[in-house]
Design goal:
By secondary structure, the protein is mainly alpha-helical. The protein folds into two domains: about 5-60, no CATH class; about 80-219, Up-down Bundle (Four Helix Bundle (Hemerythrin (Met), subunit A)), CATH 1.20.120. About 80% of the residues lie in helices and about 0% in strands. The radius of gyration is 24 Å and the shape is elongated. The mean pLDDT is about 85.
Length: about 220
Amino acid sequence: MRSGVEERLREFDDRLRGPGRLKAELIVELRDALTDAAEAYREGGLPAAEAERRAVAEFGTPAQLVPAYQAELAAGALRGLSLRALLVALTLMAAGDLTWQGSSWSDGPRPPAGYLLLSASMDGIWLAVAGFALAGLVLGRLAARRGWAGTSPAARLLGLGLTAALVLGSVAGVGLFTWSVRLWDAALTWPPMIIGAVVTGAAWFSLARAGRYWLAATR
């Protein structure tokens, strides 16, 4: 049979949504708080079961506490997404052109105007991603410093803007890669292109997980 503390922790675990590591840390904090309260009651002479029952009752119900904890998880999820997005954006802006330098087709005919426009737009998209991500990190630090509670509308807007910019970047990036392969068959065997595709794919996988966690935490 579950103890009162473990049963209450299970309820929190079932209702909270967010990054696994942050959620696990939060559950550990809750367990420590409830365990300390129950221990204090036991030292006061109450039986173990009654001590846990009273500690759980005075701590508050999930309906009362989940919104605040969920807001904390949402803030953490936005920080994680923003940090990953900023690192990826800066890396791709700095190293994106390196995949083409020295290629066998770089001195050939100029690609179509549409291709050039799509290629040039990537820097703008990544600048937007970096801007949203940096704003998200600054807002998160400011909220933690000033003790703001809850998930602010500004944080939700920044998260949605960052997510939208990342989706746009992924669609444009896949389109640019596909168009490149169709224009130059050698692109599939060009080592920098292969390495760039693998690294970018891993980065997008990480960003997709972080984005999914943020959307789940704010839903």
